[in-house]
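Q&A log
Question type: sequence-to-structure
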Amino acid sequence: MLKLADHWVWDSWYATDDEGRHHGFFLRASRALQEEGRRHLRASIGHAVSEDMQDWTLLPDALVFDDGPSWDDLATWTGSVVRDDAGRWRMFYTGVSRAEDGKVQRIGSAVSDDLVVWQRNPGPLVEADPRFYEQYNESSGWFDEACRDPWVFRDPAGDGWHMLFTARVAGAEPARQRGVVGHARSRDLGEWEVLEPLSVPDALGFGQIEVTQLHRVDGQWLLLFCCGPGEAADERRALGEQGDNYVVPVENFLDGFDIAKARPFEHESLYAARLHDIDGQAHLIGFRNLEGGEFVGELTDPIPVRWDGERLVRK
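Response status: OK
Response body:
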């Protein structure tokens, strides 16, 4: 596991270099804040490396908040890492600003030759387009403008790149049903076109569909995401499911995701989990959230998993 004595650790994402080492990027904030609820607006992006994703060596932070005034001059949040066609690493990440008290989220990027030293690109690249997505206002019934957690991947057909992100739609539905999977597309990872969401609000839905990921397990494409019980629709909470990480089987992601089919990966406290392959075997790794009513804030050891045809389960 990755546990820091002086910092909480939560959302994470991963990349494997040419030597087979696993690089973990994660949100971190000082435990000197004392109240864990303050950590989000103090977050930076930490970095560690491991041969087996169990024993980690801490490296310098990958990114911290920018000098102001800037779109990311308050905190840097969750993202993903890909390798571009030129062989350089690209990190897409979330930023919030002091000017908006962290209430409006945007997505930008940074570039690296070695996964260690990162340089910001001009940004932001993606924002909540009001044609498709809810923007922040005090009467919206929600506490922020969701445009975060970018998951970037190459189009399986080879036609450019796609981005999934956490978003919400405006409408008459209850606030805890308006979470959707945002979608953007790019040919070069530099210019992005924001598109309609790939899911629709549902009575068995969620107020926010966080930390999305598309990954194949045992030949089946899966959408992985998370949502806390207090932010799920009433009908979803009435199911009494255990676990805050959800999985939806996917045949063709461009046809959209049926969020009503989401089923949880059962775990007592795991949150913001990611699927990552170790020696060809899918593993799940995330952070320990609330245990006994207390926030833990450390990454788990990887959990080997399999797809049983209906659910993602421990192997």
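Response note: The mean pLDDT is 96.
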